[in-house]
Amino acid sequence: MRENAEGPWELCIQAPAKLNLSLDVRFKRPDGYHELSTVMLESSLCDRVYVRRTEEAGVRVEASAPLPAENSLTRAARLYLDAFAAGFRGGLHIHVEKRIPSEAGLGGASADAAALLRGMESLFGAAGEEKALYGIARRVGADVPFCLHGGLALCEGIGERITALPPAPALRDAAFLLVKGRQGVSTPALFQTLRLPVRHPDTAGLIAALAGESLAAAAAHMRNALAEAACALAPEIAQNRARLLDAGALAACMTGSGACVFGLFASPEAAEMARTEFTDLPFAAVCLPCSAAKERKGDETA
Ligand code: C5P
């Protein structure tokens, strides 16, 4: 979509969904948030964010699926304009083509906001202001800094302390089948019902396995400490996990605070084959780790 009825877009930016390959909850902080330790992966499942500057002031956001009035894009745009484009008298027109389902734990709203921040950087030129950009990202949402960062990373704190990890050899040929039923999970409700301590995933073990060659070893360490509480709120999660394992997944794990579950497969073909068993669900899609997607498609997802 190079243009719409109002003329050409200036930019089209890919906004990739994230997967939590493991997620640990360490403790509850005095500010009420939970301290996490999570391995996050950028995937090839993307929203598309279109942007143009307008003469009239204000930020106008439209999307192919309903967005809340106060959404992550409006917030990111306003914070960016205040911080980096104080002299700009015009406005912004933003359109999002949604492919990432909401209430899924795939970070769709965060991905859109991060993509917009990158787009605004190229429109308004904030090169060298990377630290300030991450500051804005953090204010928009806990997952936005990782979405700005991309790749594979260990994220700690509430997700804002990012340690980059090299692309994982273990995942080189792997693919994910993402499935989601009709039930969503509200993040605040989930954290409210969470009982600590949780059984901790072996995060260091996962990171070591990802750096090796064995997909089975990596699969063995994929676990989400929020899953049990999420299954109590949305029983479909447990059913979908069991179905993915029945369909041949090497691991089946909830991402983020749910309700999407990913199955890990040895190849895109194996994941596609398994997808045919999930046609009853509203969402079932195959995606690749971002690094593999870029290698296979000649970097077009960048
Ligand atoms: O990040 P988000 O704004 O979606 O979080 C919604 C709510 O979930 C927070 O207000 C908090 O109660 C809870 N939460 C938490 N620990 C986190 C993330 C979210 O307790 N790391």
Give a concise summary.
Helix content is 34%, strand content 29%. It has helices spanning 72-84, 108-124, 130-140, 144-149, 187-193, 203-211, 215-220, 227-233, 236-246, 268-275, 290-297, and strands spanning 3-4, 7-8, 11-28, 34-54, 58-63, 91-97, 152-157, 161-165, 175-180, 251-254, 261-265, 283-287.
Question: What is the alpha-carbon Rg in Å?
Answer: 19 Å
Count of β-strands = 12
> Helical content, roughly?
25-40%
Major sheet characteristics: 6 strands, mixed
Class inferred from helices and paired strands: alpha+beta
Strand content: 25-35%
Number of helices: 11
Unique ligands: cytidine-5'-monophosphate
Low-confidence stretches: none
Q: Can you describe what's shown?
A:
- With 302 residues, the protein is of the alpha+beta class.
- 34% of the residues lie in helices and 29% in strands.
- Strands 3, 4, 5, 6, 7 and 8 form a six-stranded mixed β-sheet that branches. A four-stranded antiparallel β-sheet has the order 10-11-9-12.
- A hairpin with a 6-residue loop joins strand 10 and strand 11.
- The site of cytidine-5'-monophosphate has 10 residues, from strand 4 and helix 5.
